[in-house]
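Worked Example 4.2. Consider the chain below.
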Amino acid sequence: MKPRRRPLLRLIGVLAGLVLAGTTMSAGTAAAAPLPVVGPGTGFVTTGGLDDLTLCSIAAVGYDDAGRLVALTAGHCVLRAGLPVTLVGSPSAPVGTTAVGHWGPDYGVIVLDPAAVTPVSSLGGITVTDIGPGAVGQPVCKTGLGSGLTCGRITETRGSDLMSDALTVWGDSGGPLVVGTTLVGIASHASGAPLVTPTAYASAVESLRLLGVSGAPGAGFRPV
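Applying the procedure from the previous section yields the following structure tokens:
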């Protein structure tokens, strides 16, 4: 009996070793949690003091001339530079900091941490592949944290702003207005009561022109 029992014991030992090794490997190579996705319409919060809190949306994510990963938003969503930015739904850790807040036209820039997010060009039914001008009568769509996807047309221009009946509510500020996949505007404010009166969108072309003149973060923005 002994010659038969020894191979059996050895086999049990080998199997036990494989199970232990597999368990150790699984524990040591457990997949890390996926990074939060950031793209058109992503909601974010700026934090700092009580006077620094904002709840807004992102127009598009891309790279600037310095190679930084940045996001475009509304200027009134950036109360000052250097504020931590967290994502709605992922509030545990900052994913970047505010960099630029410009109020005429109403555009802003967030510098993102490339190790903290997954940047995408398509989200919420909107895709941004380039930047271009908008014209009265063009069909447009927007997305944002507050009201999601809405569509309409560019109804008029007011200075460099584009007015559209693609309506918004609070929280949509900073969201993208697109013609096809071209970003033409950044949601700024309703001209009266939200969802009743047209929304003003900062011209994306004019915003990027001014960023280029200033050389600030976001200059030379190219969508991912």
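The helical segments are 2-28, 204-214. The chain has two domains: 37-121+210-223, 123-205. Compare this with Example 4.1 before moving on.
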